Amino acid sequence: MPTPSRRPLLAQIDRMIRITDALIAEVVKIDPIATTLLGLAKAELVAKKAAESGEVLPFSQRRNLRQ
Amino acid sequence: MAPVREAAGASPTDPVDIYMRPSFDTTRYLGSFRWIVGESLFVLGGDIAAAFGIAPLDARQGIDLAALVDAVHPDDRAAVHASTERASYYGGDLDIEFRLLGAGEFELIKLTGCCMRADSGLPAEYLGALHISIGEEPPLGTIAAHLCAAAELAHRLDEPSVQRFLDMALFELGTRLAALERELEKPRRDQAVIR
Lengths: 67, 195
What we know:
The complex is a heterodimer.
Chain A: H1 7-27, H2 32-52, H3 61-66
Helix pairs in contact in A: 1-2
Chain B: H1 2-7, H2 15-20, E1 27-36, E2 41-44, H3 46-52, H4 56-61, E3 63-64, H5 65-70, H6 74-90, E4 94-98, E5 108-117, E6 123-133, H7 140-157, H8 160-185, H9 189-193
Antiparallel strand pairs in B: 1-2, 1-6, 2-3, 4-5, 5-6
């Protein structure tokens, strides 16, 4: 069975990372809290990109807690 | 700046909004003025007087245009003179931008006013307001609009943690925007002084 390509999803994540970067560059001038939150959103996006491209294994906190 | 005005609930056709409140998120209201053209007298509020280095009592009683222009940056004096001269002869709306001397924190002062004509048709007096440009600070409303678009994209991406952080950032900016709007809507004492 053919596996669906991950490329569209990776391209979407890349786009979101670029948008978040642009937002951080503007928001940093006016609001430190919003900047921190956008930084956390970017960290989530980077982690998702790494997991989707197979660089790292996805981290499931719930599963690890059960172990 | 249309989306920002719409976000603020302002009607673009409202003349008061056009003349008295230019782009609320990039400027701060400084005060109102009354210019009696025939007597070349400017009656100003306390905040404007402080910005121009004039005693508040003198400003309330009215000061000469020349005293006001003395506080303007030398490079901008000619333009202010030309605009006020033209306005005193022909009337019409006043829309001048200039810098103040020794006002390091102020990027730019924007003066707007509308003409009241006498029965003869000549300009009798001007009523208007002064705003301080906040400078390079990006418009909050525009950033909030971009952040809304990013939040929509994150919802499509189906990534709950990213959605949550973007929603929180949006909430934070929304709170700041509301606080700014409330501050600008607050009645100012110096508006009553020049009545």
